[in-house]
Specification:
- With 200 residues, the chain is mainly alpha-helical.
- It has a two-stranded antiparallel sheet.
Length: 200
């Protein structure tokens, strides 16, 4: 049976993630990975990568989907039953959307007054590049692991995510298809799943 503390920790972690995430679900992924894999060691890098892949394939915002899956897996790993683990999903999902709900509800009344304000526009102009950086960080975190040895970073590939050269080939093909041929994410995901089924 899962300890009650795991629900409180889940709620607090995802509430903070929801409170300090700007730019949507992909920007949220690096924060979730830092808390779930690095800070609390609830999941392995490989398990988190699988959750991200599933979250991208299911309908809805990827960050919220990820929170839902992580909540389930964390409580399940703590020894809870399937039904109790669903409560973990609900806890993480509620926590991650609650800050946005409260903030949007608060500022929606003031937005029409301030959206042309120079200070507001200045803040937005600084947030946009930060969001791009967070999205990029999410991709890098899934690919590379950084260990600090004697105050120097040692970068290594996350082997669980790239088990062989075929994985690297699929990664390269998806990148070329997206950047060069402007193919949407859904066909790439479906093609990757089909190829993975055939190859592995």
């Amino acid at each position: 049976m899962a300890d009650t503390m795991i629900f409180l920790q889940l709620f607090w972690v995802f509430f903070i993630i929801g409170l300090f995430t700007f730019g949507g679900g992909y920007a949220m992924l690096s924060l979730i990975q830092t808390q779930v894999v690095t800070a609390h060691s609830w999941l392995t890098e490989s398990a988190f990568t699988d959750i991200v892949a599933i979250s991208q394939m299911t309908p809805g915002p990827v960050g919220i989907n990820c929170a839902t899956y992580v909540g389930y897996e964390v409580v399940r790993e703590a020894g809870a039953s399937h039904l109790i683990a669903i409560l973990g999903s609900f806890t993480a999902t509620l926590a991650v959307v609650l800050p946005s709900f409260i903030i949007v509800l608060t500022i929606v009344r003031f937005y029409t007054k301030f959206h042309n304000n120079k200070i507001f526009e200045g803040v937005m102009s600084w947030l946009r590049p930060a969001v791009v950086g967070l999205i990029g960080a999410a991709a890098i975190i899934l690919m590379f692991k950084v260990n600090w040895i004697d105050a120097k970073p040692v970068i290594s590939i996350v082997r669980e995510n790239f088990t062989d050269w075929i994985s690297w080939g699929l990664f390269a093909a998806a990148t070329v298809a997206s950047l060069c041929f402007k193919i949407g994410p859904i066909p790439i995901i479906l093609a990757g799943g089909a190829l993975g089924l055939l190859i592995y």
